[in-house]
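FORM 7B: Structural annotation worksheet

SECTION A. Query
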Amino acid sequence: MSEEQAFIELVGLAQQGHENSLNQLAQQVKGRLYAYIYRVTLDYHLSQDLSQEALLSMVKSLGRLNKAERFWPWVYRIAQSKIQQHYRTKQRQAAYTASAVYRDFVSQRADYRQDDVLRALVQKELSKKVIVAMKELRQQYRAVLSLRCFDRLSYSDIGLAMECNEVKARVLFYRAKQALKKQLARRGLSKSLLLMCLGVFGKLTAPAEAAWSSVTVTAASAKVGLPTAVIATATTKLGVGTVAAAVAVLATVGSVSILSEPPLPERAEVKSFHYTIQSRNNSPGAVSSLSKGAYEQRYYFPDGVDGPMFMRMQRWDPQQKNELCSWLQNDQANYYYHGGEKQIYISNYRLWLSSLRVRRLPTDTAEFTSFLSEVEGDTKGVKYTRDRKTGLLVKAMDNRFVDARHFRTTYSYDTLDEGQFRYNWPAEVPEVDERDQMHKRGWTYFRVSGEMDGQSISGRGRIPFVYGTAAEHSGWMTLNIGDELEIIDCSGGAHLRFVGKSLIAAYPSGTFFKGLARPWMGMHTIDIVRRDAARQKVWFETTQARNKKDILVTLTHEKDRIDTELTYTIDLENDIIKSIRFKVNSRTKGWLTFLYLQDIDAVDDEFIEPVVLDDPQVPMRRSPGMLWLVYLAEGNLGK
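SECTION B. Predicted structure
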């Protein structure tokens, strides 16, 4: 068994609760954890405290680690989180002079006196220059240098540890090297001495019990490749010349694809984004120009920007000094961490905005956003800037709040991966699961009943509530309108046909779920319905129902002197549509009511997923979107 395999086995045994294995694991981790934190902070006493905190968090949350082979990036991510949390609380790092930094280092490294070679190294002027040069770097640069050069992590693992993707990890390492070369040059050290200086730093900061003399930095570990260098320098003042030169070089070997990509991804290629905004304080008695807090938001799209969505949100005070509550909505459930109660609540529903405005995304097109602004009005005091080529939002300036003046938002794209949307609260935090039976299961069956122009409507279907159940229990639905018309929508496609007879029209799968609840997509039903409407320029109005628990969303579609109105009753806390009522030219036309099954143990063949068979004589039609409901009310469906 290799050393790596033995370590993975040790992690597995520790996860299973073997006390000796856990103690052995903690002993193996302790030194590396301290060395990493010290190399990042260059603060002896702080490193002692943070490494103990990180080790304790590791022990408590070890059971949440999904893959034992990813143990080290997971541990370093815990350490990085502790470092960031400390400096957020303290606001800024203490300012040390170069001499003070080195004196502190020497005074705490008492073991150098017991080793002649190490003592000679410490006493050399080179060591002082290296330590001071490293101190001048950003913490993020010291972190990536340590993970790559001393802990020998791959760039993908560094991405996991530092919560970014592999490309960003490579770029960050490249920039860290360049910054260190510049600091060394300022102290009279040639850039060619980079590897040697990194080796010196590694030896000087190695844990006392480690075989420090074996610390080496290889040329291979310090390489990132020319494409990464091009990306890293493309946004600097010298970047234009560098890119032009690199194009000439790379073109000769047929590797120019990375240079042809724009600074921002095309909208269809976006996998994630991250930004922080301020929110208005609407509490009673609050001044209108006060912020409720800064909301740091992360989104991830496992199947592309128009597919399901995971969300993570951290609420800060307006100055972003103190963490408050936080939310996580991933492929498993909807979590809310109450900062005051130190408790996690698991709920049925996705988040909605307390203002009842439609949730907007920086990937929304300018046309789509403009229509929402027509319906709901603009946010006064906020100026947005879009990238001309991609149409993506790139920044915003918010001047609304007296307690957060000139608040700048920068939208960062494709810097996150799915691993950052896993549940990672401390193991000791209690959970309160407020979900009902069907939301705990993650999916359920539903029945539809109703009437349209005197014809009865009946139907059935299945709905997943979270992305994690959507593959095995995908959404499907059948509707019978009177005795003649039948709608089928399932994973194989969507059909509109006469009952037991010929096919009228074929559509893409999911066509008849437009305008209906799709909670597995990652947004609350009120947002899904209204965004479906906005995509087709259908006006809407949002009001609160008399019972204060439901929301009424009324859609209005007018064309050819036909005024069609759909009024949804949406249960906020269960994130489902209860009913839809239809009017045409102010006359009631019909209604649909949805019943969701909590208990499915006694269901029979009623809920067998239908199968659609292609008919080559019936061409595939373009999806009408949510307008199919309008056509249903007007009696034009399928025409």
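SECTION C. Observations
Residues 368 and 535 are 6 Å apart (CA to CA). The chain is about 35% helix and 25% strand.

SECTION D. Sign-off
Analyst initials: ____
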